[in-house]
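sry for the spam today, last one i promise. struct tokens for design, 386 residues
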């Protein structure tokens, strides 16, 4: 089978887009991706979204966006897996191309988090947890992160301020990202004095929710034109795994089993190991999830993920750069669109187009997005085609 490659990318800034509808945001990103791909027309469209039914009162996003973007008649559908929706949609496009039944596919991750404000948004996001046993009892995603963080601190002798490096790094990398919500410097002392949201999670431990859309056009390498203007980036591995939805049903609270399984399968599929990755765009919706993700993906031993942030090993020049454009923490958390933003960002890195955010000699990158507190994990490995 010919390699599956990224032909085009597009994205909107993450922010409070009250003036733009969900369909408009999706269209702008898709239009940019098709233009970047030299006008390739997709035969199928896969939309990753988490909250449109609850917050925008809209289903059938596939048909909606295809119609609005002048693609009426193509195969189109929505994929939902909470915060992993974008990654799951990317996997569906990958499988469609791998089957040989589709030659060109588009993937969009789109979210409108600000169509409502207040308790309605919190309740919608909480639906990513177990509604009967967690959400119905008033437990939010931030509350779940607080429970995990408290347990992590207890088991591994870590202080709350030891997580500061994740957020400081994210803000440093977002400063030159025009699509980031927050491009300000965050200093460790500001992190330490931030107000608590759900103790021990403070305001700078959690990522800001925003609106946004990102898109990819994918095809097979043998279908690229001879004058294709970009360095091709192939998807070398695609993997999705699940764990118990309710945190209390998991065998080990401090092991993201779905993330670990998904990463392991991706490494096996690509024939690579964690030590061969040049960067890792992880799901840093909360700093504790960043630490746990680094451990689950094999970049740190159990209980040592936080040390990579403390020791500067996750910076652009570190051992395993993460959040290279700000991650969820500073670029902003676009809900179900996260996985596609990650794929766009890694593609920019592997093309060598990241400017001051460029990871030197980046040839391989891994992306991983999580649904809720890790019940779903989707991992993709992407490689620069030399």
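last one done:
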């Amino acid at each position: 089978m010919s390699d599956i490659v990224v032909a085009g990318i597009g994205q909107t800034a993450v922010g409070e887009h009250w003036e733009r509808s969900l369909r408009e945001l999706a269209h702008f990103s898709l239009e940019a991706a098709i233009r970047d791909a030299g006008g390739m027309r997709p035969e199928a469209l896969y939309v990753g979204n988490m909250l449109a039914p609850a917050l925008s009162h809209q289903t059938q996003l596939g048909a909606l966006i295809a119609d609005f973007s002048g693609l009426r008649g193509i195969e189109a559908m929505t994929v939902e897996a909470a915060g992993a929706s974008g990654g799951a949609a990317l996997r569906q496009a990958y499988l469609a191309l791998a089957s040989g039944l589709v030659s060109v596919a588009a993937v969009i991750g789109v979210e409108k988090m600000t169509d409502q404000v207040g308790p309605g948004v919190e309740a919608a996001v909480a639906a990513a947890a177990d509604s009967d046993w967690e959400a119905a009892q008033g437990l939010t995603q931030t509350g779940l992160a607080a429970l995990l963080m408290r347990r992590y601190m207890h088991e591994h002798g870590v202080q709350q301020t030891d997580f500061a490096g994740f957020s400081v790094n994210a803000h440093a990398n977002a400063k030159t990202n025009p699509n980031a919500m927050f491009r300000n410097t965050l200093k460790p002392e500001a992190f330490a004095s931030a107000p608590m949201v759900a103790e021990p999670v403070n305001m700078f431990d959690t990522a800001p929710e925003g609106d946004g859309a990102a898109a990819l056009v994918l095809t097979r390498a043998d279908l690229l034109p001879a004058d294709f203007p970009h360095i091709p980036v192939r998807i070398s591995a695609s993997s999705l795994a699940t764990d118990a939805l309710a945190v209390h049903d998991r065998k080990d609270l401090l092991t993201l089993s779905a993330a670990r399984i998904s990463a392991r399968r991706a490494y096996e599929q690509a024939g690579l190991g964690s030590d061969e990755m040049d960067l890792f765009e992880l799901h840093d919706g909360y700093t504790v999830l960043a630490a746990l993700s680094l451990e689950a993906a094999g970049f740190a031993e159990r209980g040592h993920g936080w040390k990579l942030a403390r020791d500067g090993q996750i910076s652009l020049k570190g051992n395993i750069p993460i959040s290279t454009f700000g991650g969820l923490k500073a670029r902003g958390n676009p809900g179900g669109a996260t996985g596609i933003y990650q794929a766009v960002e890694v593609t920019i890195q592997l093309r060598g187009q990241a400017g001051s955010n460029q990871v030197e000699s980046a040839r391989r990158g891994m992306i991983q997005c999580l649904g809720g507190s890790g019940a779903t994990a989707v991992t993709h490995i992407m490689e620069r085609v030399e």
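The longest strand covers residues 233-242. ok im logging off now
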